Amino acid sequence: PRPRAEVAPGAVHVPDWLDLDEQRRLVEACRGWRGYRQTRLPNGGVMSVRTVCLGWHWHPYRYSKVTEDGSPVLPFPSWLGDLGQRAVASAYGPSSVYAPDIALVNFYDSAAKMGMHQDKDEASLEPVVSLSLGDACVFRFGNTSDRGRPYTDVDLRSGDLFVFGGQSRLAFHGVPRVLPGTADPGLGLAGRLNITLRVSGLPS
Ligand code: MD3
Ligand code: FE
């Protein structure tokens, strides 16, 4: 089995944190959330991943309570907050407290990727929780100064938990590629889903 690893201070990888039944339930939840879209960037680019937001809608580079077309943002379910609390307790220890109010759900087809970036649109520096489902990917975890080296490439597989807090919260990171056909056939998902949980730091 792959061991749990602190890749950098505050960046904890817990392989196989979700069992197959929990993964199936999360995939079903992701299928129920409607409105996945490819985000347009101010530079004219379009992200290759398809994203749906819960709690707060992310547009580059801020959060709001409405989407581009004016539709309300999907609610952030309390069960997802409980899952986030259990995730942070697994990574950092049982006394940690965590109350996320944002989920960004990203769908990657076999060609999708995400360039190196920092997540700094949240007004809180509480940790980000990442849950991976379906096809594995190469996840690139970098430094806090720029998009380049040094970085570490880690395979993220279905069921893996990663928590990014402390000194790692503002690290550059990205997904250079998905590894097509690597999902458990029993999951019934072609492609990769990633759920990140975050704390907005904004008034509810
Ligand atoms: C490190 N998502 O949504 S998850 C993103 O797999 C994002 O969809 C990727 O980067 C994905 O912003 C990577 C891992 C991750 C998420 C948030 C982080 C790593 C992070 C925030 C700070 C540092
Ligand atoms: Fe990110």
- Report the sheet-strand fraction: 25-35%
Q: What value does the average pLDDT take?
A: 98
Ends distance? 41 Å
Low-confidence stretches: none
CATH-defined superfamily: Alpha-ketoglutarate-dependent dioxygenase AlkB-like
Radius of gyration: 16 Å
State the helical fraction. 10-25%
Judged by helices, strands and strand pairing, the structural class is alpha+beta
Whole-number count of domains: 1
- Cross-sheet strand order for the largest sheet: 1-2-11-8-13-6-3
The rough form would be described as globular
Description:
This protein is of the alpha+beta class and 204 residues long. The protein has one domain: Jelly Rolls (Sandwich), CATH 2.60.120.590. 14% of the residues lie in helices and 32% in strands. The chain has two helices and 13 strands; from the N terminus they run ββαβββαββββββββ. The strands form three sheets. A seven-stranded antiparallel β-sheet has the order 1-2-11-8-13-6-3, with helices on one face. Strand 4 and strand 5 form a beta hairpin. It is globular. Bound molecules: N-(carboxycarbonyl)-S-(naphthalen-2-ylmethyl)-L-cysteine and fe (iii) ion (FE).
